[in-house]
């Protein structure tokens, strides 16, 4: 999903300066889910959906982070796509109230290619992005079905030709990454575990189960590595220096502590934990006793 | 708003869409130290509450503005075919400190005005970050508690009669997460890149960060194996102590009430005996005995303070202790596995 074609526009005049610098954009997973959901719920007559992208931009305009989206409605009149301005403005205001620092960065559409019809829409969104060019992202749902790829393509625009309308421009593809934070990661993991089940749903795990699964995965990885090492030693596979180096690095990460001090650390940690558990249980029994007594009191 | 319709089947599970989970996480994480709320939209079907979308509330607005915001947002969302039906609300929390009167008030008004099937979802931000395990819980108020809350009487007697105590305020519902087909496809496509073994470059130094170390989506998540116990436990214990302090104050109030009742009663008794003696003398003299019922109008028993706060605090403390217990289990497991690794 990392698109490596960073297009460097060659040195030109200052009017095209922002496009010379390498430009990257990151998408958060919420955006993907929201777009697919919007696509699922579209009216039967419309083949594709359109919406706006919200997020933050770094001060010099080279890094863009897309954090949120909202959907927009459009109608097709005479092969021209016309956006419902009122709905768009309403949604924008509502989102601004919750998240004042997210600004409109651009717009998205589902559907495989850029079409000439997208030019006037680009103009519309350009009004809201301030001095910067709006970003256009396409989600190709057909590609999602047929291949292994994500089907997400991001573009920024560079003016072309003599007209001053921002819509007449050249679309430059831009590398686009999916990034996320810790808390989102646990959520995403859980959603991903649903992908292999029959009904596409999964219930939440308790902490203990989660730990069990993580340890299971670790064991499996260690198993694979030790099998690989065994097969190299017996000569079945050709040794690969790079992999060997990685393995050596990983194994040396386990800290070497002499056993006496380790015993001490371990025991003190254990005692702390057990004491806290004991106190917590005592509080609990107190609370339950009080509860029973209260229920008996009046009679 | 319409009065609550009789429920056709009791609610026994909550099903969330993947989108809802991510949106809740995002909103709660972005406003970290503050508690934020939002609305859940979806369908109520055959004993399961299906939540298909949600939107956050702005944190700084009052009653009227927020009602207006809700209406506007629902109208806009309806235009894009999102389910227009409110089924509950969500709230962020930190280390389990979510049981307070605010929660109960809001949930009560939702259950009363919308439908008996609304639920509140609590997302615990700090717990999810600490353990690498998503913490989402769904609650609704039990029917017995709702009835009691309506009558607004929380004396010890009425609670004992209704068999209510802190553990029966809320009932917890199991949560399931559900993905649509398209999303499932997308999840299959986000995978770790396959590296070609022959083209690997060996790391020049130990500390070098290659592209492998950047977090790729869906690479195995080993945060849960972190050994650091202290911050989580410390915070939890602090909260527990604060709670017990407040609980102590409430108990003091209650005892003060009890003592004042006892005082009033002794006064009443003394007055009654005096009255009876007077009456005896009057009867001997042949006069009418004075009535004894005046005792009730002369002395007023102070009213019992509401036990609701007490119940809420005990519920909260119970929650904290349960959390400590739950945290301790995996921590013990982690400690022992480290011991094995050292051998």
UniProtKB/TrEMBL annotation, chain A:
Signal peptide: none annotated. GO terms for molecular function: metallopeptidase activity; translation initiation factor activity; translation initiation factor binding. It holds the Pfam family MitMem_reg. Residues 25-161 form the MPN domain. The keyword Protein biosynthesis applies. Keywords: Cytoplasm, Initiation factor, Protein biosynthesis. The keyword Chloroplast does not apply. GO terms for biological process: formation of cytoplasmic translation initiation complex. Transmembrane segments: none annotated. GO terms for cellular component: eukaryotic 43S preinitiation complex; eukaryotic 48S preinitiation complex; eukaryotic translation initiation factor 3 complex, eIF3m. It is found in: Cytoplasm. Component of the eukaryotic translation initiation factor 3 (eIF-3) complex, which is involved in protein synthesis of a specialized repertoire of mRNAs and, together with other initiation factors, stimulates binding of mRNA and methionyl-tRNAi to the 40S ribosome. The eIF-3 complex specifically targets and initiates translation of a subset of mRNAs involved in cell proliferation. Component of the eukaryotic translation initiation factor 3 (eIF-3) complex. Belongs to the eIF-3 subunit F family. This is Eukaryotic translation initiation factor 3 subunit F. It comes from Circinella minor.
TrEMBL record, chain B:
GO terms for cellular component: eukaryotic 43S preinitiation complex; eukaryotic 48S preinitiation complex; eukaryotic translation initiation factor 3 complex. One of its GO terms (biological process) is formation of cytoplasmic translation initiation complex. This is Eukaryotic translation initiation factor 3 subunit H. Belongs to the eIF-3 subunit H family. The keyword Cell cycle does not apply. HAMAP family: eIF3h. It is found in: Cytoplasm. Component of the eukaryotic translation initiation factor 3 (eIF-3) complex, which is involved in protein synthesis of a specialized repertoire of mRNAs and, together with other initiation factors, stimulates binding of mRNA and methionyl-tRNAi to the 40S ribosome. The eIF-3 complex specifically targets and initiates translation of a subset of mRNAs involved in cell proliferation. Residues 14-145 form the MPN domain. Its main location: cytoplasm. SMART domains: JAB_MPN. The keyword Protein biosynthesis applies. GO terms for molecular function: metallopeptidase activity; translation initiation factor activity. Keywords: Cytoplasm, Initiation factor, Protein biosynthesis. Component of the eukaryotic translation initiation factor 3 (eIF-3) complex. Gene3D superfamilies: Cytidine Deaminase, domain 2.
């Amino acid at each position: 999903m990392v698109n490596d074609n960073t297009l460097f526009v060659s040195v030109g005049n200052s009017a095209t300066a922002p496009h010379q610098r390498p430009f990257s954009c990151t998408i958060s997973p919420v955006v993907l889910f929201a777009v697919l959901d919007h696509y699922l719920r579209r009216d039967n007559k419309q083949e594709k959906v359109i919406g706006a992208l919200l997020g933050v931009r770094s001060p010099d305009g080279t890094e863009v982070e897309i954090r949120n989206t909202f959907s927009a409605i459009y109608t097709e009149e005479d092969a021209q796509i016309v956006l419902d301005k009122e709905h768009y403005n309403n949604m924008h205001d509502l989102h601004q109230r919750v998240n004042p620092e997210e600004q409109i960065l651009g717009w998205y559409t589902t559907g495989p290619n850029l079409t000439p019809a997208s030019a006037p829409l680009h103009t519309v969104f350009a009004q809201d992005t301030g001095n910067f060019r709006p970003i256009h992202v396409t989600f190709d749902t057909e590609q999602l079905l047929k291949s292994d790829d994500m089907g997400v393509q991001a573009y920024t625009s560079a003016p072309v030709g003599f007209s001053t309308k921002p819509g007449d421009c050249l679309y430059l593809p831009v590398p686009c990454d999916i990034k996320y934070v810790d808390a989102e990661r646990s959520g995403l993991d859980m959603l991903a575990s649903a992908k292999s089940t029959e009904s596409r749903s999964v219930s939440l795990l308790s902490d203990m189960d989660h730990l069990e699964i993580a340890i299971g995965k670790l064991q499996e990885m260690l198993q694979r590595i030790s099998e690989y090492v065994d097969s190299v030693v017996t000569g079945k596979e050709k040794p690969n220096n790079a992999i060997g180096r990685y393995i050596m690095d990983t194994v040396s990460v386990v800290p070497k502590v002499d056993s006496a001090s380790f015993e001490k650390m371990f025991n003190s940690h254990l005692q702390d934990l057990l004491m806290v558990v004991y106190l917590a249980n005592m509080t609990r029994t107190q609370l339950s006793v009080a509860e029973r007594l209260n229920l008996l009191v009046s009679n | 708003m319409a009065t609550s319709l009789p429920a056709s089947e009791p609610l026994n599970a909550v099903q969330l869409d993947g989108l809802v989970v991510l949106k809740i996480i995002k909103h709660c994480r972005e406003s970290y130290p503050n508690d934020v709320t939002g609305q859940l939209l979806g369908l109520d079907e055959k004993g399961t509450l299906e939540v298909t979308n949600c939107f956050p509330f702005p944190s700084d607005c009052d009653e009227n503005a927020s009602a207006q915001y809700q209406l506007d947002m629902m109208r806009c969302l309806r235009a894009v075919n999102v389910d227009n039906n409110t089924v509950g609300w969500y709230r962020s929390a930190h280390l389990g400190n979510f049981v307070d009167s605010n929660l109960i008030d809001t949930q009560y008004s939702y259950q009363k005005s919308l439908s008996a099937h609304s639920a509140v979802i609590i997302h615990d931000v700090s717990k999810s970050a600490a353990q690498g395990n998503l913490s989402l819980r769904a609650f609704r108020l039990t029917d017995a508690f709702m009835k009691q809350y309506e009558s607004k009487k929380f004396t010890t007697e009425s609670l004992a009669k209704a068999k209510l105590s802190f553990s029966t305020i809320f009932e917890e519902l199991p949560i399931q997460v559900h993905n649509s087909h398209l999303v499932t496809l997308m999840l299959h496509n986000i995978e770790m890149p396959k590296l070609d073994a022959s083209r690997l470059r060996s790391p020049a130094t130990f500390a070098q960060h290659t592209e492998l170390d950047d977090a790729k989506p869906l690479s195995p998540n080993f945060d849960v194996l972190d050994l650091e116990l202290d911050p989580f436990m410390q915070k939890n214990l602090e909260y527990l102590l604060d709670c017990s302090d407040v609980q102590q104050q409430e108990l003091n109030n209650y005892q003060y009430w009890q003592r004042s009742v006892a005082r009033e009663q002794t006064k009443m008794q003394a007055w009654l005996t005096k009255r009876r003696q007077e009456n005896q003398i009057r009867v001997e003299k042949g006069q009418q005995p004075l009535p004894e019922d005046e005792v009730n109008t002369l002395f007023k028993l102070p009213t019992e303070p509401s036990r609701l706060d007490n119940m809420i605090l005990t519920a909260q403390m119970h929650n904290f202790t349960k959390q400590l217990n739950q945290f301790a289990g995996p921590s013990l497991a982690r400690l022992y596995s480290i011991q094995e690794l050292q051998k």
